[in-house]
Amino acid sequence: MSLSNRKLNFIVLFLIFLLMWYFNFCTPLIIDDYIYSFIWTGNSIITPLQEDAVRVKSFYDVLYSQWNHYFTWGGRTIAHIFAQTFLWWGKQYFNIFNAGIFVIMLLEIKWIIDKGNITFDFKPKDILVVFCIVWIFSFYLGDIYTWLTLSCNYLWTMVLMLAFLLLYERIYFFPKEQECVCGETKVIKGLLMFVFSVIVGWTNENVPCFVIAFLSYFIITDNICEKNKKQIMFVSIFGMLLGYSLLVFAPGNYVRYLTLLQVGEIVEGIERLKQNVLTFTIMFYIRIFIYFYVVKNLVSFRSISFCENDRILLKLARFYFLMSFLSMLVMIFSPEFRYRSTFPSLIFIIISAGIVHSIKCSNNFPHDIPPVLKKILSLTAVAYTLCTLITSVYFYNLHHIQSKIMLSQIEGAKMNPDASVLIVKDSPYPLDDFIFTNLLTGGHLPRINTLTSDENQWINVDVALYYGIKAIRLEEED
Questions:
Q1: Single pTM value for the model
Q2: What is the pLDDT of residues 348-361, one digit of tens each?
Q3: What is the DSSP string of 184-230?
């Protein structure tokens, strides 16, 4: 590849970085961000903070908060360490890091599809295709890329998981990588691998369990003879199992479940199952084209004899397909099934489809659709991406302008200690029209309405405490 093409790759990645930075820049702090800006002392998240609540000001405060959080609200310690650290540092730093993490995720997807080959020597079009597919199918998932606490819970943990799978792919399939990990310093490297596996297992409830199961399956079925490879796999599985146990058996998970059940935030029985099945069905049908493409080709590949490298790729394609489907299916039985919980599933099915496509291209298999129709679909996808990007930029900018107006009103209230309740509008028209803006932005709607019209509501109380004002609420709707 020529140097000019490599430079073009960096230019494309930098432009994607700038775009994501802008979206993050336009997004203010949202709901949970205000709560996690304070040291967690054991209160329920839906209980107003005490007047003497203290802001997080050090890494010790972060660790102390997460110790309390683990026992009183939830086990996603790794994600919330990220979140509280950035809330301590400041949103401006998060904007930069989060845009970078998004770019890293795109690269990880590309590298995993390319047999774990970590390189920037690829066609610029390839990374643009990955970006377009992620963007198009991120319907209802837009705030994962911009909402601070949500990004740390899903985007950042996904990048950790992909890094683990990428490393594991290279160790498992490339002998030189085994020598690198299991060389003279194999004890130190093995310990680092173990610690990293614990961190990755301690991320999200609906992914590590299946990774552990599949890695265990590979050990049993592959008749592995290499001592080094076995050691690496056992260390990884044990580390991830420990991390996952710390995640799911956190006492705070049960406390949170009971609290939300008591206040009606979640329901039990058939009603909950119906809601979860509906969420699954919606997200599955949004991605049905990708699932169909993968299943159709995996079935057709069964009658074909492949070389060793392609057989390995085929195993990977099946692995990521099952990871995608099962990580979404298992959420049907969860107390809460939010759209954002399907984010890992989306990334996994994109990877599976990419691997299937690479197998077809390397073997010169015929295209599934006629060239003319393929061109029409490609142009439609590009046009859709550009249109939704432009409208998203516009609406994010509207959101940013309204946020600046609200912040200036808050600053005015701070200068007037006699002011009672500050009445604001935190989301401009037409962002109030959820369906309208979702259609125009392709589901990449900035989160709206952090506040409520009741100044005594827990989130209003927390926002007022954060900004150091007496009280705040939304203006009443006509």
A1: 0.93
A2: 999 999 999 999 98
A3: TTHHHHHHHHHHHHHHHHTS-TTSHHHHHHHHHHHHHHTT---HHHH
